[in-house]
Write a structure and sequence with these properties.
This protein is an alpha/beta fold. 40% of the residues lie in helices and 14% in strands. The strands form four sheets. A seven-stranded mixed sheet has the order 2-8-7-6-5-3-4, with helices on both faces. A three-stranded antiparallel sheet has the order 9-14-13. The protein binds pyridoxal-5'-phosphate.
């Protein structure tokens, strides 16, 4: 062990999804044809109007420091986007722009969580929520959900988890990894309880545009238009990474009350300063320019969702809920646990995923990474051909288990 490393740093676990990605990349370099359902990013290119805005920023010399909380014009574009869509009355002083939504979440954790705090996290959860809470010395309290409850929490379950140490609930809708979307009534009930108990409701809306036909999506901020006081309790996290295929540009943001936004901005000013000036110009174009490319990407994701849901549900022993949003599906593979291959026992979904990578050359993330053993996460941010071939290989490998 390296001398002098802090207890805090030693508490972190590396991202399991990035670890899988690194392993697949290595296999590909070695010439192995791997089909990956592991990636958490759109396979589309950033739309041309957005790329051009980035190029123009460079040509115009927009390459210097900006205000650390983000440019006034990008923060105004974020407000316009939300005010138009959800009838809010946000001002740039409600917004802090950061280096991706993960960084926005990290800033919130830094500002709100500390020793003695409990933070409620529904499981299955996105991998970084508990790690960030632990890093701050606070305690993640998991609220277990499964397929039988459509992976959703409700107020009765929530009430039982709240103690006098509870600081916040982190909700992710549409959800990574389950693809569930909370409807207006469910959100309203959760929000009412959170307000009654004086907690923060942190809603990660990074997949808000990726919702499929017939599904109603509501931003928690829609409740604020009739009741501005709710901003005392609500913090929204969003960004351009997923909706606009801009994962590498690193732009995310928080929407909160002005006092909290000022504290988050001040804290960011002492850590990263502003997010990349060029990316901020590109993000401004993403939010205020044509949304045509988003429509095309969502249509493609919807077709792939239908395809992968159909193929996986044909496999004996697999149970699933068709995702309403995001680009992930999270089927239950627990019936394959305790099978074996050539005498070697497959005791859990970590082992099952290792087996599938070795035998079928198919990359899938085990549910353990999301606090839900027995399940596996498939990203359908990949081509229809890859989905067909990948599930075919997977089926063949599963047949060899006994
Ligand atoms: C639920 C969720 N929140 C936040 C993020 C982070 O997004 P960004 O790339 O903008 O940091 C991700 C990325 O995988 C995610 O799945």
């Amino acid at each position: 062990m390296l001398k002098g490393v802090s207890k805090r740093a030693l508490s972190i676990s590396p991202s399991p999804t990035l670890a899988l990605d690194a392993r697949i990349k290595k296999m590909r370099i070695e010439g192995v044809s791997v089909i990956s359902f592991g990636v958490g990013e759109p396979d589309f290119d950033t739309p041309i109007n957005i790329k051009n805005a980035g190029k123009k920023a460079i040509d115009d010399g927009f390459t210097k420091y900006t205000p650390s909380q983000g440019t006034e014009s990008l923060r105004q574009a974020i407000c316009d986007f939300y005010n138009r869509k959800w009838c809010t009355q946000l001002k740039p002083t409600n917004i802090v722009v950061s280096n991706g939504a993960k960084h926005s979440l990290f800033n919130i954790a830094m500002v709100l969580f500390g020793e003695g705090d409990e933070v409620l996290i529904p499981a299955p959860y996105w991998v970084s929520y508990p790690e960030q809470v632990i890093l701050m010395g606070a305690k993640p309290i998991f609220i277990k959900t499964d397929l039988t409850t459509d992976f959703k929490i409700n107020v009765d379950i929530l009430k039982d988890c709240i103690t006098d140490k509870t600081k916040a609930l982190i909700l992710n809708s549409p959800c990574n990894p389950t693809g569930i979307v909370y409807n207006k009534k469910e959100l309203q009930e959760i929000l009412n309880l959170v307000v009654q108990k004086g907690l923060y409701l942190i809603v990660d809306e990074i997949y808000d545009a990726l919702v499929y036909n017939g599904i109603e999506y509501t931003s928690v901020l829609s409740f604020v238009s009739g009741n501005p006081d709710l901003m005392k309790n609500i913090i929204v996290v969003n960004g351009v990474s997923k909706t606009y295929a801009m994962t590498g540009w690193r732009i995310g943001y928080t929407i909160s009350n002005e006092i909290l936004a000022k504290i988050i901005g001040d804290m960011q000013s002492q850590s990263t300063s502003n997010p990349c000036s060029i990316s901020q110009k590109a993000a401004e174009e993403a939010l205020s320019g044509s949304q045509e490319a988003v429509k095309i990407m969502v249509e493609a994701f919807q077709k792939r969702r239908d395809l992968i849901s159909g193929l996986l549900s044909e496999i004996d022993g697999v149970k699933l809920k068709k995702p309403d949003g995001s680009f992930y599906i999270f089927p239950d593979f627990s019936s394959f646990i305790n099978t074996s291959f050539k005498g070697i026992k497959i005791q859990n979904t970590i082992k099952l995923c290792e087996y599938l990578l070795e035998e079928a050359k198919v990359g899938v993330v085990p549910g353990e990474a999301f606090g839900a053993p027995g399940y596996m996460r498939f990203s359908f941010a990949t081509s229809e051909d890859n989905i067909i071939e990948g599930i075919k290989r997977l089926k063949e490998a599963l047949k060899k288990l006994n």
